[in-house]
Amino acid sequence: MQYSTRSGIVRSRMKAGPLPNIVDHVVHDQPSTCHQDQGMMNQDQRQSIPRQREPPSGLTPTSSQQLYNQEENISKEKDSALKRKRGPRRMDEIWALPEGKFIKITFNDKGQPVGDSAKKLIGYLGVLARKGMEAPLDYNDWRAVPTDNKDLLWNILMSKFDGIEDYKEWIMKSLGKKWKDYKCMLKRKFYEIYKTDEERIANCPETVIPEQWEKLVYFWSSPEGQQRSSTNKFNRSKLVTTHTAGTKSFARVNHDESTNRGGKELSRAEIFVLTHTKKNKEPMNKASSDHIKRIRELQSKLSEDNEDSLGPEDIFSQVFGKEKHGCIRGLGLGPIPSELFGPKHTHQTCLRMTREARIEADKKVDMLNEKIHNMEEKYRKMMEIFGTEENYEKVMAMFTSMQQTKTSEPLHNDAPIAQSDHLKDRQNYENECSPEENSQQEIESSSSSHLVPPRQVLKVNRRTIKNVTSAQERAEVILKSPFRPYHSVAQGTLISKDPTTQVGGEKLGNQFWEIYIEIAMVPSEKLIRSYGKFKTIGDAVLQTIAWPSTFVEYIRT
After folding, report:
1. Which of UniProt's keywords are assigned here (predicted)?
2. Of all helices (H) and strands (E), which one includes residue 405?
């Protein structure tokens, strides 16, 4: 399903002076080596998330193409002391996508992007995370970034990718990780190489807004920043293995390898061996070698009937220990223990249920839209029949009056029928019929409270009906009320569909047929086109009238 390109996307603008030229650095989707600088905060810091400036007071509309053009016009000058082997990753092919064209993203059952298109999404997230106007760097925590900015980033992504609407949580989490890793890289390359804050501020990276860089420098130099850095350096030192997957996520490694194996998903232990072994089949380092050796030993003890299924007691857990709160090692970003090891109704199950509910809701919306369309079509036809809104209102007023008076009409089948002109006409017509024709008379009655009581009904000799244009056109029909389409008001014979045929001195037109009335089921039903003394269905028995073709139902031909 495609999404309409979001036009008028709102972008955050800094108010503190003119913006410098911006060139993005290349940021790969690889394991961060900077957790000692921007890693997890301790429990006390989580309770109060610091931030160093107020959210932008206003957001100026700027299209994603304008943002791309802004990068095209940036300065190409480089500091002679800094040498780069290649320019920043820009994802030009995504910025240049035509309006209405999207990149389809596939997700696995754990809510992670997989397949060839996932590489484009992940790379594009890295590009967006480095844009200081959309993702300001002068906040100390991704959770403190204003919601307006996050919504802006989400709208940009929705205008480029299809199939991501149910996976916003993973995408925003990935954006936050890349935003944090980018700040780590900036600190390593542009902060730690200088000894004083004055030098650091003076050598602001050309990819960073100066006002944001200055606040970053002050925070990193503050006691709080120094304490956080020390804590995270200690935690990072405990990681002794390094993977060989590069920018490829573990989820993509698992997906691609399982595809090659006929669809069988890899265990966490198999993923570890695959991502910590060099091309020459040698382990990455001694720590990796020891872990792989232990994994091989446990795998050899599995019987043919047993599999190393994902769970809290799988081989990976036996080698590396139990999982801590917040993540599951070996699967990549996203899955957490409470989802995969907890109750059956995991987060992904809830997502699937949500998608199914949305599909069901969409079906109901489509049904309602179809009903509305049908009502609008009926209204249009009614307007064609009645000619003007004024005539329509008159008929509706007539219908309302009928509704108010119908309760006073006789409801008994043996109620007397008032003599009217059409009954006299019927008697005269019967007297003119031959004895053979009179012998074909039969008794008919109606079960509706609005129908006429049982009475003798004449079977009309079809040879006496004039103006029938063809044998195929002649048919017995039921007339339905335009005001109550499910209520039958009369039975008769279709005489003509010719638009030029005149009834009561007026041509039928395209919306009316000429009908010969034989039985008045609801004598009080008003004629749409009355003429002469014929005002109701009861008046028009044994006469021809013009009736809307929309409300004519065939009995048999």
Report:
1. Coiled coil
2. helix 389-405
